[in-house]
Amino acid sequence: MSRRTQITLTDRQHALLVDEAERSGLSLAELVRRAIDGVYRPYTRPRVTGFEVSLGLWRRPDAAVVGRRVRER
Length: 73
What we know:
single chain, mainly alpha, 3 helices
């Protein structure tokens, strides 16, 4: 069962949530739910840990990569 609740946020708090929602792709409501669970029930939600590794090989790097390379003189 879900309940609808209204809260009042400061402009700064709202801006922080909007920025995080855009960055993470989560809704503001989901961010608030996760914050509540993290503070008031920190041990009930499972945490996923680990590493992510990415590797790529190209014959010729694109111009953006070549432009960022440090050139030795």
